[in-house]
Amino acid sequence: MKIVAGNWKMHGDAAMAHALVEAVADQAGRAPGVEVILCPPATLLAQVSTWLIGSAVKLGGQDCHAEAQGAFTGDISAVMLRESGCAYVIVGHSERRQYHRETNEDVRKKSARAIATGLIPIICIGETLSEREAGQAETVVERQLRDSIPDEVAEGRFLLAYEPVWAIGTGKVPTPEDICRMHGHILSVAADRTGLASPGISVLYGGSVKADNAREIMAIQGVSGVLVGGASLKAEEFCKIMASGR
Ligand code: PEP
């Protein structure tokens, strides 16, 4: 089953969220066979969770703290996410790595905390444009994988998301050959790091996924689904992406 996850980032209010969630839940009901995950801002989680009652659509947070609780003003714990109805949490998004200086070690600790709490972390990795132009994309991604994946992973208890930083919000997408090559690389490194067989590891692609390229991207070998930013805020567009995963 393909996975389609929407990362709303710091967008959305209650009215917009309600309309979007209704459309997505309706589409999920009419076209099952795709695992759909919505990751709204933390302030909307509890409300969205009640709107999703009776729907197969899952809820995810956009980040969690590595500690179970404590004096961390402004942060959100994995338990808080779970209590708000989350089954998933995005960790190590490039915007967290860039603007909050999150390291691979931070991402590993957050992922371990998520797993210990019963959440499925969506562990994000991906190279910058300068790293790609320097021919270092595969090396950078390998380092991120080896250092960001915690020891606690088990089959079905984590997702990886390959998001080349230069493709996020830019309208630029790697060629299908490049995506296929990188996902193959990620699968083999992740299998080596975890001891799991690569068919048991899921790798999403993220970066400028839209309704008109989602089907082609999800058909690429090694792509288990997509992580969608901007296009997940538009009901019609996101529903079309969901339909592409069937
Ligand atoms: C993202 O931020 O995870 C993302 C993939 O963004 P976009 O789809 O807008 O490129």
Can you describe what's shown?
The chain has 246 residues and is α/β, with parallel strands linked by helices. It has one domain (2-244): TIM Barrel (Alpha-Beta Barrel), CATH 3.20.20.70. Helix content is 41%, strand content 15%. It contains ten helices and eight strands. The chain has helices spanning 14-30, 45-51, 78-83, 94-99, 104-116, 129-133, 137-148, 176-194, 214-218, 235-244; strands spanning 2-7, 34-39, 58-61, 88-91, 120-125, 159-162, 203-206, 225-228. An eight-stranded parallel barrel has the order 1-2-3-4-5-6-7-8, surrounded by five helices. Strand 2, helix 2 (45-51) and strand 3 form a beta-alpha-beta unit. Helix 1 runs parallel beside helix 10 (235-244), helix 5 (104-116) crosses helix 7 (137-148) and helix 7 (137-148) packs parallel to helix 8 (176-194). The longest helix has 19 residues, at 176-194. The chain is globular, with a radius of gyration of 17 Å. 48% of the residues are buried. The model has no long low-confidence stretch (mean pLDDT 97). Phosphoenolpyruvate (PEP) is lined by residues 7, 163, 168-169, 206-209, 227-231.
